[in-house]
Specification:
The chain is an all-alpha fold. About 70% of the residues lie in helices and about 0% in strands. The chain folds into three domains: about 90 residues, no CATH class; about 100 residues, no CATH class; about 60 residues, no CATH class. It has 13 helices and no strands. The C terminus is likely disordered.
Length: about 260
Amino acid sequence: MDATEPLDRSDAVARTVARRAGRGTMTRQWERRLRRNRRATGIGDRAMTSVEDVLSVGFAGVIAGEAPTAEGASEMLLAAGLDDGQDPAEVAAVLGQLHIDQILDAIRSAKAEDWQRARTASESLFDMMRLRRAAEVGLAGAESGLVGLDDFASHYNDPTFASRVELTPVFLLLATPDWLDSLQHNLALFRALEALIDDLPPHTHQYLGPTGTEALKAATEQDRDEAIKLMAEWLHDHPEHAAVLNEATGEPDQAQI
């Protein structure tokens, strides 16, 4: 294969970025997840083993304009700690659309309102990531959920963080009306969860989230009655948050939030 071919260039960029990243905390975490996946799945030599492998998947779309395989996208999400049950084929298709030429075309043609929408999308995404991770830790402990969100924890409130700035042109392509609607819906959900966790006593948090119903069943009658009363009062006092949470669960009469 000619060394100037796009996929060769994307691999070369991945090697350079991985080398510059060195042996930082994020690099070690990604490789630890890859090794864990390798042992758990038994897929042997076909599994990714390094951050360079993961970056090659991501850069294939940007530089070569080629979508990675669904398997490659799945392993990339796993390494980054961002596997949320997404359809790997859909993730791969999105990555394949982010070719540098398309990004440059979007930059050239963008109007002021397009840039504002892209900046808002970038800021909202980081806000949602912060809120989601805080909710996961508050509800179920730090070892569950999208642990990859912790990799960005120190940058959530830093508007100068490079990735926030560099991602803005990408959102010229990604921030469609449907995508923004979905993002705003998730923001509302995690803001409601943040408010709920902040307002309820810590000993009641075990009754929230996916395992809340089972924990409530196992509680003493006194603890169960107290928790239900506190939750009902909170939902009554916060109707906007209550509407969002009830829509998310589809069970407005249940104690599980």
